[in-house]
Amino acid sequence: MSSLFTPLTLRAVTLPNRIALAPMCQYSAGPDGLPTDWHLVHLGARAVGGAALVMTEATAVVPEGRISPQDTGLWSGRHVDAWRPVTSFLTAHGAVPAVQLAHAGFKASTYRPWEPRRGGVPDVEGGWTPVGPTTEPFLPDYRVPTALDPAGISGVVEAFATAAGRAVDAGFAAVEIHAAHGYLLHEFLSPLTNQRTDGWGGDRAGRMRLTLEVARAVRATVGEDVPVLTRISATDWVEGGWTVADSVALAAELAAAGVDLVDCSSGGASPTAAIPLGRGYQVPLAAQVRREAQVPTGAVGLIVEPEQAEAIVADGEADLVLLGRELLRNPYWPHQAAAKLGADANWPNQYLRAV
Ligand SMILES: Cc1cc2nc3c(=O)[nH]c(=O)nc-3n(C[C@H](O)[C@H](O)[C@H](O)COP(=O)(O)O)c2cc1C
Q: Could you say which of 3.40.50.150, 3.30.559.30, 3.20.20.70, 3.40.50.300 is the CATH number of the domain covering 8-354?
């Protein structure tokens, strides 16, 4: 029997298998962060392909929290209306729709990757002044952020909570808080980027405060039935940076704050990090956090083969396997993996004659 094709229950939601579409920016939103037909077709194809959890890209809780001007958002009722057809299609095709709620912090207002220019987008091209833990920019060609004051920090917590409520209204059945990759929450967590001397910086407890307050506020808003996931960078891969031991401590506190699964990615706080890229390179991080913090985890990063994904779940390294680029290349990977692992493939009726 396949472990990868065993259901996973998180609160009131049961995923039919352990395969999730990893959150991936599409840089294809309409004006003001509204999702478009691209999002319906792109996410819809992965639901039809058999992924149990279909997660949106980093979706900004406030306009200034977008990575690029083309990112999606969830900061108004218009966004709720625009996301509804997407969540309704995903649900109708057997997937659990999830949204990744994000704030890009000092990495906001940058060009989308296929533009010829890099770095910060100026105001005249639709950019804006980002916010961060301090006024230090991420890179010299990024925009100089404004340092968040305590009122601004409270505003961020409230924005995550309000967006989570909107997500539920829009039909999302699960919410992921983005606290990884050098974006705002990770900027506060990491000693590399948080040089604050007030109660939001300093020791690990001070640096964890913003992420934990966001987690508590999101949990309080969505109620007891909706799963809340949190994506962390489990290590900065830099001497003196955030470590896996820090992640174990954070994961335990996140669980106490009402988070159901910790999605273990890595890196992003430092442009000079030496990341040991390779097949399943972040799986040991998910395994260590799961073992030592006793919380369900998600594994992500160069997971490409069905047998590899199967072993991650069967060996207890993670509860959920998130696939990014492999699902871009092949939306039907879950059905093909099921066939390979001897589980039910569940192809949609419309495609049965091709199976
Ligand atoms: C095009 C693209 C966009 C991405 N956007 C996001 C994002 O919005 N949020 C996030 O947490 N990670 C993002 N990531 C990282 C992926 O979720 C994933 O962690 C990473 O690609 C490693 O997994 P993979 O080897 O299966 O692709 C992105 C990756 C790609 C390739």
A: 3.20.20.70
